[in-house]
Design a protein that fits this description.
This is tRNA cytosine(34) acetyltransferase TmcA. The protein is α/β, with parallel strands linked by helices. It is built from 3 helices and 5 strands. The chain has one domain: Rossmann fold.
């Protein structure tokens, strides 16, 4: 996690944003995302189908946050991938931010039902 914090500071200096994809079984992916969320300074908006500690919003309610900015964001696509919500979320991030995408295992993702379809 020290390397993640170092890279985050470098991103802030350079004014860039990055995507971090966490793909694997549900429990592992959630655990890793929670570790990253704890390690990163600043707000970490969580967007997904299941409530999480604040700040949290469902993908359907994400429109209510347009115009706001967040330091980091976590998008839970393990049960469905709402492309419009993902794009809107990306637009809320400040320079130096991480957008963390949680997905099912890449090998199994195409065969899993998509609750957003």
């Amino acid at each position: 996690m020290d390397e993640l914090r170092h890279l985050t500071a470098q991103m802030a200096r350079e004014g860039v944003r990055r995507l971090l994809v966490l793909s694997g079984d549900d429990a592992w992916t959630l655990h890793q995302a929670q570790r990253v969320r704890t390690a990163l300074a600043g707000d970490g908006l969580w967007v997904g189908p299941r409530p999480m500690p604040e700040p949290y919003v469902s993908s359907a309610a994400l429109k209510s946050l347009l115009g706001r900015e967040f330091q980091h964001a976590f998008f839970d696509a393990r049960e469905g991938f709402d492309v419009a919500a993902f794009a809107a979320l990306a637009g809320t991030l400040r320079a130096g931010s991480w957008l963390v995408l949680l997905t099912p295992d890449f090998a199994q993702w195409p065969a899993r039902p998509d609750a957003d379809s």
